[in-house]
Amino acid sequence: METVPISSGDGHQFVWLGSGDPQVEKGIASNQYAIIDSGEALLLDPGGYHTFARVFANVTKLVKPEKITRALLSHQDPDVAASIVSWLEIQPNMEIYLSTLWDRFLPHFALPGDAPTVLLPDEGKTIALPSGARVRFIPAHGLHSPGNFVAYDEKTRILFSGDLGAAMVPAGEWKLFVEDFTKHTVYMDGFHRRFLASTKAIHAFLKRIEGLPIDMICPQHGSIFRGGDVQRFLAWLSKLEVGFDFRSWGDAG
Ligand SMILES: [Fe+2]
Ligand SMILES: [Fe+2]
Fold first, then answer.
1. Ligand 2 (ion): which residues have CB within 5 A?
2. What is the pLDDT of residue 21?
3. Domains parsed from the chain with CATH numbers
4. How far apart are CA 151 and CA 113, in angstroms?
């Protein structure tokens, strides 16, 4: 599968690195992305064990392996993080950003004790890329993980949203960009209602990103929101009841 520059210019690119075909990939199909700045790559949710070969082949079309210097793990899930040991075998100095909550769980992915992790405090962190362009790791706790971050690339104004905006698109219907927002909500609804912790967590997140200029929202699953679909998605999210605010699974009724 090809790589697609979602936004680029001036030695700085936001790139899609290919999603798994739901008919072929083991497990949930997932998008991977990288921000490439002055020849160095920051991976955004590098992916599961079986995605490594594809993502590595794609990103090294754009940068040398030793220039894959950073990775964000938005949260702890296997579809986000299970490839991390493979990446460290290629680039042992790759800095791995993740919530302080998940640090002690990573050894279960066979992460070596001296792995170069950078723990993100609950309030998040802003980092500077080689050109000076900044990326903000913004808290989105409870959406769905209790230690969860999205990433905002100030230069391209793209928000990598992790599992927020995830859609379970049927095999054969997937498109890189959302084409029919109303139809797309059907594919998002079930995941958001079951996995997101609470409606309150959604509102706290939306308040946190209020006023942020966002040109695109890139989720880990499903399709990218651009143009009017960015605000359509945020408005849809603002009206959604999720988690136990929606219903109590397992209980009668
Ligand atoms: Fe997840
Ligand atoms: Fe995910």
1. 79, 163, 220
2. 65
3. 4-238 (3.60.15.10)
4. 26
User: From ligand 2's centre to the CA of 55, what distance in Å?
Assistant: 16
Closest CA to 68 of 78, 76, 57: 57
Distance CA 253, CA 250 (A): 9
- Give residue 132 CA to ligand 1 midpoint distance, Å: 30
Which ligand has the shortest distance to the CA of 79? 2
CA–centroid distance, 9 to ligand 1, in Å, is 31
Q: pLDDT means per 10 residues in the chain (253 residues)?
A: 82 90 77 97 96 95 97 97 95 96 92 91 98 98 98 98 96 92 97 96 98 98 97 98 90 64
Q: From CA 33, how far away is CA 18, in angstroms rounded?
A: 8
pTM to 2 decimal places: 0.96
